[in-house]
C-alpha cells in the first residue's frame, strides 16, 4: 500500500477528533503531506472515521490528481493543498467543527491570544475568513492569503482549520484552539477578557518552540 504509515497516522488522527469533542459523525477533515514524495494523504468525503481502514485514505498529488484510493477525497482538498503549497514548513492540516471555535466564526470575531498555552502554539490571533461555499471561486485562495504566517484560521460560519509541521502539532493546535475559545466565552460571563499583546504572544511562542522542554526544538 502506498504511504501506508502516513495513511495509518491520518486515520488515527481522524479517530481522535471525536474523542476530543472536535467533530461528530462524518465531520471534519485530516490531511497530511509526505515530505519525501510531496504527495498528500487525505480522509474521504462524508464517511465516519470509525468505519474506515488505512487503505481507505486517499493519496493524491499536490494538483489533486488521485494516485491511490477508491473513494472521493475531501471536497475541500483544493483548500488543504492551497495551504500546503504556500507553507513548506507545514505538512498537516486539520479541519474541525468544534463548537466554541465555530461560535467565533459565526459572529465573525477573530480569536485573540488570551492564555500562555494558546500563545505557545499560535503566537498570533486567529483570523476569520468570510463565509464562502466550497464551490465559490475564492474558497481555495482567500483563507490561504488571510492565514499568512499563522497556524490557524476560522472559516466564516463553518469552523476552524489548524496547521502543523506534523499531524501531532496540528491536532494539538485544534485542541488548544477549542479550549481557548471556550475559556474566552466563559471569561466573558464573569468579566472582560484581557488578551496578550502581540509582543507577549510572539515571545511565548518563540520560547516554547526553541528553548522549552528536553530538546532545543520539539
Keywords:
14% strand; alpha+beta; 218 residues; 7 helices; eight-stranded mixed beta sheet; 8 strands; L-fuculose-1-phosphate Aldolase
Give a written overview of the molecule.
- The protein is α+β, with helices and mostly antiparallel strands and 218 residues long.
- It has a single domain, classed as Class II aldolase/adducin N-terminal domain (L-fuculose-1-phosphate Aldolase, 3-Layer(aba) Sandwich), CATH 3.40.225.10.
- It contains seven helices and eight strands.
- It has helices at 4-19, 77-86, 99-106, 116-122, 142-147, 167-190, 198-210, and strands at residues 29-33, 40-42, 58-60, 66-68, 92-95, 128-129, 152-155, 159-164.
- An eight-stranded mixed sheet has the order 4-3-2-1-5-8-7-6, sandwiched between helices.
- The longest helix is centred in the C-terminal third of the chain and has 24 residues, at 167-190.
- The two termini are 30 Å apart.
- The model has no long low-confidence stretch (mean pLDDT 94).
Q: Percent helix among the residues?
A: 25-40%
The tally of domains stands at: 1
Order of helices and strands: HEEEEHEHHEHEEHH
Low-confidence stretches: none
Mean pLDDT rating? 94
Q: Enumerate the strands of the largest sheet in spatial order, edge to edge or round the barrel.
A: 4-3-2-1-5-8-7-6
Major sheet: 8 strands, mixed
Distance from first to last alpha carbon? 30 Å
> How many strand units?
8
* Rg, alpha carbons: 17 Å
Query: Helix count?
Result: 7
CATH topology: L-fuculose-1-phosphate Aldolase
CATH 2nd-level architecture: 3-Layer(aba) Sandwich
**Hey, roughly how much beta strand do the residues contain?**
5-15%
Give the helix/strand class: alpha+beta
CATH class value? Alpha Beta
What is the approximate shape? globular
CATH H-level superfamily title: Class II aldolase/adducin N-terminal domain
Amino acid at each position: 500500500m502506498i504511504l501506508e504509515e502516513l495513511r495509518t497516522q491520518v486515520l488515527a488522527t481522524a479517530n481522535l477528533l471525536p474523542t476530543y469533542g472536535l467533530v461528530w459523525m462524518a465531520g471534519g477533515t485530516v490531511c497530511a503531506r509526505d515530505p519525501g514524495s510531496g504527495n498528500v494523504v487525505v480522509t474521504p468525503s462524508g464517511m465516519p472515521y470509525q468505519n474506515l481502514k488505512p487503505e481507505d485514505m486517499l493519496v493524491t498529488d499536490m494538483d489533486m490528481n488521485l494516485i491511490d484510493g477508491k473513494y472521493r477525497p475531501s471536497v475541500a482538498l483544493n483548500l488543504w493543498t492551497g495551504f500546503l503549497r504556500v507553507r513548506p514548513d507545514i505538512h498537516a492540516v486539520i479541519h474541525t467543527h468544534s463548537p466554541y471555535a465555530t461560535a467565533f466564526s459565526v459572529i465573525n470575531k477573530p480569536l485573540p491570544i488570551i492564555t500562555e498555552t494558546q500563545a505557545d502554539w499560535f503566537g498570533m490571533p486567529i483570523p476569520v475568513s468570510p463565509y464562502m461555499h466550497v464551490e465559490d471561486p475564492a474558497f481555495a485562495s482567500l483563507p490561504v492569503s488571510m492565514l499568512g504566517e499563522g497556524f490557524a484560521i476560522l472559516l466564516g460560519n463553518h469552523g476552524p482549520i489548524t496547521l502543523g509541521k506534523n499531524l501531532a502539532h496540528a491536532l494539538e493546535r485544534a485542541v488548544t484552539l477549542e479550549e481557548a475559545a471556550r475559556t474566552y466565552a466563559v471569561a466573558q460571563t464573569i468579566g472582560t477578557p484581557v488578551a496578550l499583546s502581540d509582543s507577549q504572544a510572539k515571545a511565548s511562542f518563540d520560547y516554547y518552540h526553541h528553548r522549552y522542554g528536553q530538546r532545543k526544538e520539539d
